[in-house]
């Protein structure tokens, strides 16, 4: 029986049972893809990250939801870095993670103990919504999707829609986002036409109270009805809301019911710094 070290980390929080759980499994070399997918399904957390050392604080990383491999995952990258720093497997203050689809990702440990990730900034394009008076009875505009579909799936109507690696909906106030009770099965069928966006939707609003931006992230298209903390989503939130609010640095809150996650962002050119904490909740072994 093979035995692999296993860690479960709550990311983007400094409290257990908050933030977003990620399973981290260091390996000497990657297992067959179908085996890693089966392990992720067994773990049944938002993402399982598999990491392989390449020497000199460089690690290969791959991420799996319970149902699919994904091209980028922020919280599981933060969790992986936390494991490596806490188990003394890093010889400097920066780790490089090599990925197949998202280039090199860099994670540094700050003086206050938080971790800072350097990720690509995602571009987004605003969808031109029609004047409600001009919408035909069937709800169609631009001939490609239904306004009614978004309102029906979200059980509320966003004021803006943006297209990118995720679909992004902006609402008029933060309480609306916090109180959303969407139909995730309906969300799984939504798309704004961008590759990979099907069923992956960010809902956002400007807060102005304790945070700059409040969000929730629904990803039934990736096998996750709602994700508790989504670093990759903030690669799209950060450049968009930094422009809207005219602020390079944002304090963001992902308002998953009963958990919640604090994600600080700083826009630097075509890169986004994602800053947060993590905490160990399970340390053990995976037996196969």
Automatic annotation (TrEMBL):
Isomerase keyword on record: yes
The keyword Isomerase appears for this protein: yes
An example Gene Ontology molecular-function term: isomerase activity
Keyword annotations of the record: Isomerase
Active site (UniProt): 47
One Gene Ontology cellular component: cytoplasm
Family: Belongs to the PhzF family.
Matching NCBIfam families: PhzF_family (TIGR00654)
Protein name per Swiss-Prot or TrEMBL: Phenazine biosynthesis protein PhzF family
